[in-house]
Design goal:
Blueprint (H helix, E strand, L loop, with lengths): L5 H19 L15 H7 L8 E18 L2 E8 L2 E8 L5 H7 L7 E10 L5 E12 L15 H6 L1 H7 L1 H23 L3 E2 L5 E2 L11 E4 L4 E5 L4 H9 L4 E9 L11 E10 L3 H18 L5 E4 L2 E4 L5 E4 H9 L9 H12 L8 H12 L8 E7 L15 E9 L2 E8 L4 H16 L10 H7 L6 E7 H9 L18
Parallel strand pairs: 3-5, 6-10, 14-15
Antiparallel strand pairs: 1-2, 1-4, 2-3, 4-5, 7-9, 8-9, 10-11, 11-18, 12-13, 15-16, 16-17, 17-18
Helix pairs in contact: 5-6, 6-8, 6-14, 9-11, 12-13
Length: 495
């Protein structure tokens, strides 16, 4: 147990005395279960037509946590909260047995109780339960906060997340929304005949994305292994194996920086569909997001960090090259001369770049000067081959891939493409990535010969998607920090 301050220790001791008094009562206490109850919100919704001050003979029972206690002479009022909401309890000292009154007087804010009684409406118009029986199910031994005043430090809130959920309605609602969104995404994908699958979290090679992995050691096999940075390569192996539509919702891990939109452990949905391409994937993403927003009754105009965006469909689709040309009043194409383009950028805009190719230059310009200003949901297409090691090259434009990234409010939400199916081309690209890695680029992709072997058996034309669930929920709930939408975010040890 964490060491308590003097005042906390006094409260703890007092509550232990109350717990002992309840145990010594002739009334039952601390049962192992408490059934046959009704939700607080259901009781309220079914009896709103009662007149102020009206009492009924309708019996009911509820269970939950006490979040407030108020005593007025012969009457005690308690607010009881369950998963559905909150309801008031009315305890009349004049109408209950003395032993039960003594029992109830040992209750504190934070205790978990079960009660039975009759439904009534107070003179002030509040649906309540007039208590006839009660049992203590669990004693709260710590001082329980009624409100979250005074705990302004977010670190404290996240360390005691269980209390945050209990007393902070917005935090509770955000996490409920998170799991609703995940459920709805599953519903949508299942309705499209995608099969939900699982792939390894521990992998011998950290593949499927360009990122720095977490490393661990497998003692039994005496080999280093990696927490996955993406499930991509295993999901595509399933497509090769004959599973034509697969998806996985799960954790991925990237040993990189932490900020408002990045967490080392985050949740992604990846899907792969045989016999479709990048356009089919974009259509699916739109349809999926439309389904989620409609089921949550979220308006097409979203506000996020004091900025409003129009999420109405269809969403804009535009080439990265077009965005760069519009921004800098240029006419860069995939076959433009690199040196003259670099000189024009320096002369006209004072920008100095040492890019190795037109593709890498366009990507750097987009990433540094355009991406953060995209507010409305936008599919940015035509990514350069240099930054897309698994995307299929366009048949019309050499050096350009059939890839998109979805942006909104200046953040990336999704990444998808027509998958590269040529094993020789794939091997060549991974070898180039391996050269970068050997030169010290920790985020460059590893060479994966086993995946190349799999490709040689034939990957059908396939459209792939990676969808960032955490950032999507941030936007839907208007939370600026990714930690707010994760139930238990990572924190440094207190000491």
């Amino acid at each position: 147990m964490t060491e308590l301050s003097k005042s906390e220790g006094e409260i703890y001791s007092l509550r232990k005395e109350k717990e002992a008094a309840v145990r010594n009562s002739i009334l039952p206490s601390f049962p192992t279960y408490y059934e046959n109850t009704t939700n607080a919100s259901e009781i309220i919704s079914l009896h709103t037509n009662l007149e102020d001050g009206e009492k009924t003979e309708i019996s009911t029972s509820v269970r939950g946590r006490i979040v407030n206690i108020r005593s007025f002479g012969k009457l005690i009022f308690m607010d009881l909260k369950d998963f559905s909401g909150k309801i008031q309890l009315v305890i009349s000292k004049e109408e209950l047995p003395e032993e039960l009154i003594k029992y109830v007087e040992n209750y504190d804010v934070g205790d978990i109780i079960g009660v039975s009684g009759t439904i009534m409406k107070t003179k002030k118009g509040e649906i309540s339960i007039k208590v006839t029986e009660s049992v203590l199910l669990s004693k709260s031994l710590r001082n329980f906060p009624e409100k979250w005043h005074g705990l302004k430090d977010k670190e404290t809130r996240f360390r005691q997340r269980y209390l945050d959920f209990l007393v902070n309605e917005e935090a509770n609602k955000t996490i409920q929304t998170r799991f609703q969104v995940i459920k709805l995404i599953r519903e949508f994908m299942d309705s499209k005949q995608f099969l939900e699958v699982e792939t390894p979290t521990l992998q011998p090679k950290a593949g499927g994305a360009i990122a720095r992995p977490f490393t661990t050691h497998h003692n039994a096999m005496s080999i280093d292994m990696f927490l996955r940075i993406a499930p991509e390569l295993y999901l595509k192996r399933l497509i090769i194996g004959g599973f034509e539509r697969v998806y996985e919702i799960g954790k991925v891990f990237r040993n990189e920086g932490v900020d408002m939109t990045h967490s080392p452990e985050f949740t992604m949905m990846e899907s792969y569909q045989a016999y479709t391409n990048v356009d089919g994937v974009m259509d699916m993403v739109e349809e999926m997001c439309r389904y989620v927003l409609s089921k949550l009754n979220i308006d097409s105009e979203l506000e996020y960090i004091a900025t409003k965006a129009d999420f109405s469909f269809p969403w804009k689709r535009i080439s990265m090259f077009e965005l760069v040309n519009n921004k800098f009043n240029l006419n860069i194409d995939f076959d433009s001369d690199l040196n003259s383009t670099l000189q024009t950028l320096e002369d006209k805009h004072g920008l100095k770049y040492n890019s190795e190719s037109i593709g890498s230059l366009v990507f750097e310009l987009f990433e540094n000067h355009i991406e953060k200003d995209i507010v409305n949901p936008t599919f940015v297409t035509e990514y350069p081959k240099e930054v897309s090691p698994f995307a299929r090259e366009s048949k019309e434009k050499k050096g350009i891939t059939e890839r998109f990234e979805l942006f909104a409010f200046g953040s990336e939400l999704a990444n998808g493409f027509s998958e590269l199916i040529d094993p020789e081309d794939q091997e060549d690209r991974l070898k180039k990535q391996a050269i970068k890695k050997n030169a010290g680029d920790e985020e460059a992709h590893v060479e994966d010969k086993d995946y190349i072997d799999a490709l040689e058996y034939g990957l059908p034309p396939t459209g792939g998607l990676g969808f960032g669930i955490d950032r999507f929920i941030m936007m839907l709930t208007n939370n600026e920090s990714i930690r707010e939408v994760i139930a238990f975010p990572h924190l440094k040890p207190e000491n």
